[in-house]
Structures are given as C-alpha cells and as structure tokens.
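Design job #97: recover the sequence.
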C-alpha cells in the first residue's frame, strides 16, 4: 500500500511539474496587427471625437516569460483627419491561462506606451490585454494626451502576423 501511494505521488508530481511549464512570452520576436476604435474625450461639455485605426506592434522578449519591449506604429482617423503616431511599448505578463498538461492557452498582460502623434499628440498610457493561443489579442486601453489635455479610451482586437516558431522535435 505504501509503495502504491508513493508511486501515485511521484506520477502526480511529474504531471504537476510538466503542467507548470510556462509557454507564454518565450524568447522570440513577435508582431501583431491591431484594429482599434474608441473616443477622444476631455470629460467636459465638448463633444467626444471618434478615433479608429490600425497598429503594427513588433516586440522582442527581454525577460523570458515576463517582459517584452518594442514599438508601436499607428495610423488612425480622428477629428476628420488621418493621422499617425509612433512610440515605445513594454508588455508585462500578469497571468498565464493554464491548460493542464498542454501548457497554456494564453495570458493576461499589461502594456505601457508612450506615443508621439503627427498633430502634436503626446499619449502616455497603457492597457490590459488578453492574448489567446498566442494568435489573438483583445485589449482595453487608456492614454492621456498631456499636450492636448484629453483622454483616449479605446478597445482593440489584433492578430499575430509574425511566424510561429517551429516546434522542437523531441526525437532528435
């Protein structure tokens, strides 16, 4: 009986340690294309403006399983004009969505951005992102335009456009 208990404990321990392997934020280059929309508001009597656009976000993992850094290139429409912004971004992984023996199915991460726009926008802020299957991102963001004294509140959906790394062949 003692031997059976020990064997079951060792088997369950091996499955637990295998399931805890973190597959999110591996050491790699990743690029997302995102569609975003929302509003630009001052929270006063002025009407809110619609903002919508597309972003390209290339990033590279700085600290494996924790931190990525990169840049954002943004083309957007607001105030009856097509404009652009660019700036650095950093993403900090908060949580991994575990999938038992299969590793993970996604993660929750926080991003912090600082963007400079073509119409003198200076956007500082960030958002919360759900990355599903390392292919789809859903996000809510808030940025403060400290030059224009407005808030940019947006949601976005994005897809990974960089190639996935080839799986490691355990037979070789």
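Job complete. Output follows.
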């Amino acid at each position: 009986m003692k031997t059976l208990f020990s064997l079951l404990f060792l088997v369950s321990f091996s499955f637990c340690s295998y399931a805890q392997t973190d597959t999110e934020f591996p050491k790699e280059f990743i690029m997302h294309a995102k569609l975003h929309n929302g509003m630009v508001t001052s929270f006063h009597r002025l009407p809110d403006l619609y903002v919508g656009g597309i972003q390209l976000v290339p990033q590279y993992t700085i600290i494996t399983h924790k931190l990525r850094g990169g840049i954002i290139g943004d083309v957007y429409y607001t105030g009856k004009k097509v404009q652009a912004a660019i700036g650095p971004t950093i993403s900090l992984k908060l949580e991994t969505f575990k999938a038992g023996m299969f590793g993970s199915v996604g993660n929750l991460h926080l991003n912090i951005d600082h963007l400079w726009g073509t119409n003198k926008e200076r956007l500082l802020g960030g958002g919360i992102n759900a990355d599903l299957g390392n292919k789809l991102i859903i996000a809510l963001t808030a940025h403060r335009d400290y030059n224009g004294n407005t808030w940019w509140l947006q949601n976005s959906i994005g897809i990974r456009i960089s190639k996935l790394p080839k799986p490691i062949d355990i037979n070789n």
